[in-house]
User: Fold these one by one.
Assistant:
Number 1:
Amino acid sequence: MSESFTKGMARNIYYGGSVFFLLIFLGLTFHTTKEMPQRDHRENLTESVARGKALWEDNNCIGCHTLLGEGAYFAPELGNVYTRRGGDGGFKAFFNGWMKSQPLNIPGRRQMPNFHLNDQEIDDLAEFLKWTSEMDVNNWPPNIEG
Amino acid sequence: MSTLKFQSQAVAKPYFAFALILFVGQILFGLIMGLQYVVGDFLAGAIPFNVARMVHTNLLIVWLLFGFMGSAYYLVPEEADTELWSPKLAIILFWVFAAAGTATILGYLLVPYSTLAEFTFNELWPTMGREFLEQPTITKIGIVVVALGFLLNLGMTILKGRKTAINMVLMTGLIGLAVFFLFAFYNPENLALDKYFWWFVVHLWVEGVWELIMGAILAYVLIKVTGVDREVIEKWLYVIIAMALISGILGTGHHFYWLTTPEYWQWIGSIFSAIEPLPFFAMVLYAFNMVNRRRREHPNKAATLWALGTSVMAFLGAGVWGFLHTLAPVNYYTHGSQITAAHGHMAFYGAYAMIVMTIISYAMPKLRGIGEANSNKAQVCEMWGFWLMTVAMVFITLFLTGAGILQVWLQRLPESGEALSFMATQDKLALFYWMREVSGVIFLIGLLAYLASFFIGGKEAAKVS
């Protein structure tokens, strides 16, 4: 690097540039959080959905599944599982049966543990997954398989 | 300990040793998970996949934090040209952190996660159950306490001593690490908001402030092993980390594409992410340039190899493999696929595992009272470890990338109705997963060779030829 470009100039670019872009980032974050209510449908966020999210976290579901593409890649994406597995017509019945039949104990197949949830808890979890599936996330995932 | 410039640098040694022990644990659990990918019911009752994964990723984070702390305790006194403010505090915090970390890992392994959540009163302040932030809230508070004590210790040391560029960059990186971790305590009921701010920890750590820590450690080791003028190295350091933050902060946008956020993030995220490989490329040029201009033949050839290796692997893993799927139209198909896993593996190994091993390689001979470098025999063994681990990681990345491309092809690209389901796709990827597992075993062999180098050649120091 040329001698006319001094260490002091490099240092100023570091501190000045970082602060500048951090401020832009914070400004955009402020704007984004103002816009998000129109897309995340938080008006539908009931106590049941909130309990469902707590169950999702307390059982570390993210340790195998992805949710909106984040998490582990060992088990299916669940951000759209509500629509994939029956939607309004059949999801809750499917989900209740699915949770109670775990583990499937098919030799060699990946096993989902049984978390021993009661009917109320399974319903809360279903409500959480339903609410999640209704968020407007720019049309991700590309197809129903997630 | 006569080879240390400042006696208090010795506190780095337990940090490094414990980091390496945790590293072994991380790899063992990685192998268990890798096998569960193809033999689904392997240890399914004893160690379910989600537990193995939590242990694998949490051990990674914790061993790197131990490594960063050890690095800071080693290099800050020398850079500041004064003894550490309080070596006693450093040792106390070591035991606090080691005990809390061990208890947390045992908690993951011994009781169901929901029981752990109950025991630690997660319902009072729910923070658990989010990827990488699975630690019980009490552990998170412990981490904050340890971080504050650590920063106090370093801050006081630097205040009474020399304020070099390396010290300042390291400190801004470590302060950023502590500040952004505070977002781990924010867990709203709204999933979209939860995920948005979750990235304030995850992205702004690994694609932000951790890069400052990496840059500072690399600059320090390069000054030591090359003897190149500090002014030159520090100027490069500032330029590189400036690029890293300028691209990395708004580059967070590449995680906001599919999170109920405005579509402008797809443009901002794509543009700034495209710049993110540049600082890593600059780091490669810088490391090789400094080594070529070296003014002395340092007897520790292994440390030089690690320094060059980390720059190359960080560029490939974080830079190239990150860029591969960071543009919004590409990410639409690759998000959350095995491509993400491929990138994650090489980026973490190249940028952060290797930088910690770089400074361990440089500092350990001095910490153990051997001298500037281990015996040639020990260094040869260490370099075997370097190559086995690094080549194995290249193959792990390539196999996971292959798996990811096939996964996108079968599961994501076809229309609904024609696409294979997730589990049906996974069956088709089995061969890639088996080859990944074999590469993982070779990685473990490399790690064992690396560890064996600490026990070879005794206290005999290398001579400059």
Number 2:
Amino acid sequence: MTVESTAARKPRRSGAKRSTTARDAKKQPEGQTELVQLLTPEGERVEHPEYAIDPTPEELRGLYRDMVLTRRFDAEATTLQRQGELGLWASLLGQEAAQIGSGRALRDDDYVFPTYREHGVAWCRGVDPTNLLGMFRGVNHGGWDPNSNNFHLYTIVIGSQTLHATGYAMGVAKDGADAAVLAYFGDGASSQGDVAESFTFSAVYNAPVVFFCQNNQWAISEPTEKQTRVPLYQRAQGYGFPGVRVDGNDVLACLAVTKAALERARTGQGPMLIEAFTYRMGAHTTSDDPTRYRSPEERELWETKDPILRLRTLLTREGLADDAYFAELERESDALAKRVRDAVRAMPDPDDMALFEHTYADGHALVDEERAQFAEYQASFVTAEEGI
Amino acid sequence: MAAEKMSLSKAINASLRTALESDPKVLIMGEDVGKLGGVFRVTDGLQKDFGEDRVIDTPLAESGIVGTAIGLALRGYRPVVEIQFDGFVFPAYDQIVTQLAKMHARSLGKVKLPVVIRIPYGGGIGAVEHHSESPEALFAHVAGLKVISPANASDAYWMLQQAIGSDDPVIYFEPKRRYHDKSEVDTAAIPGPLHAARVVRPGADLTLAAYGPMVKVALDAAAAAAEEGKSIEVVDLRSMSPIDFDTIQRSVERTGRLVVVHEAPVFLGTGSEIAARITERCFYHLQAPVLRVGGFHSPYPPSRLEDEYLPGLDRVLDAVDRALAY
Ligand SMILES: Cc1ncc(C[n+]2csc(CCOP(=O)(O)OP(=O)(O)O)c2C)c(N)n1
């Protein structure tokens, strides 16, 4: 692990350390000496002493396929929003490696708590991508059964889900199960009290939870510097668990580090924080206008670190995939896009009476009364139209 | 020329600008309020002109935003805080309810907390969860807070000036679906009292009371009812804490009937309080029970259902008809 938890034992030293790390923070984003990387932007494999990984050609192609299909799904959703089929879309463009790498590190019995942008993780969990679109279309507030894929509903209120993940992990530990929990959040969310409290609880109860922060450099218009003056992964130290920064555009590094962290959690060694250093290539959501707060050069710089391109370079150079493979994948992408488009267009609006469903599990007299009144009110239009 | 036609959001922007210009102690704080100008562009250009020390992009932490605003106010500043959307005020609810609302009383009046919390609220914009709620009753229920909501650009301008000038904490709810509605603002006028309700359309048969985004719906309903020969008076409450019961009472004494309209759920909402008080005050004038039109006892629905959830013209007119039928 990159950082040992010395803070709790030696508060004075940690105070001294803070000034050094504050200086480090100024070097961001270039202060990447601590960055775990296994695949360079040029598509070269590099070794890391702690996080060795030796994927088979099939596994490499699988990761590539996941990223390509996820990007295509995301692009299709963005288009659907432009065409008025979705009210909003939060694109994951640029974050495919962070999501696929971490998502493919999971075991079936692990549990995931996402934010609202984890489309790639959902893909890895086997959630049908069309299910993710219901809430963005405005026909539901979630739309899938979290327990059928161990993938919780999206959470819009920033940071809340990190506490749910921690509590769920506490339950896993109480049950004596050896599963782990993976909680996603953003660099902006790291400022929320809930996230700090989830760090405290998970450390105190040694909960088998891995915190996966996708630092995509921006929280809407605010850069990471408006959230923290030390690299985010270093925060873990103060809570007494390890933190590590990984190249978030390197799918292999994300896979290796998340695997190690989940394994650590499963074997009773408690929580860990992973900061995936990545970049949000698009707007925050389709309602956002990033030209107001960031330069086009910044995006161009990050394009050279594209997570998909670098794995493609590796696959091609090593002869692990040929043109026929890429062409076939392209066809598969087209088919996915079409399936998603058709499904969204066919997605019906909910029935009016859905307003009165599922507010309570056990029923509620007030809801019953309002349902009856509303039904009567609706019926009065029909009666009027029919001239009865 | 002081009078100018502007949108409700521009009026808020102009009001914040005036406040920043006239009092160096005024600060703007919130998420994305700087370069972006807020997600609704309400603070557009203010950071450019007043600097990052006065217009402060905060970390993404609502409890932190309100908690530090309290500290700044204790130190003599007058923070105007922006909460990005209604549904995101709850991480700050603890600070607002347990601290902001009570410190004046606890200090036996020695401590004043001139903090304004601006919250874009309400539905009708096709947004996802937590972006369309009307939590005003949750704040009005708390002693120590004042809760207001403008319905037009002029009130948006003036009520915010008055809120910033107030030594009490004020929750200023902005009807986000009216941000683009334009009306006349006279920045040289002398505004009326902040918490006074206003009769915005006189009528004889029934009083419609509304505030914020629902004033327009109430006015539209009154216009539609007029075509059927019904004379509806519309009262814009403007303030939910305190509530100007006198103005409503005077109106109801004339019309004999009252329908209260708001987007928030009817159950234990602002309308419930008004119905109870007006029944106490006007029992012998009332020719029908006070009716309420509002949201249901359900979470704010996905956007494809919000037209059913929100009180529209039909539901308001239905209530008007029921009240007139007594
Ligand atoms: C409590 C709360 N406050 C404000 C918001 C509005 N909001 C939605 S996303 C966002 C930025 C989040 O940034 P970050 O955590 O870095 O995640 P990213 O969207 O970049 O993936 C904000 C301010 C919210 N959803 N919840």
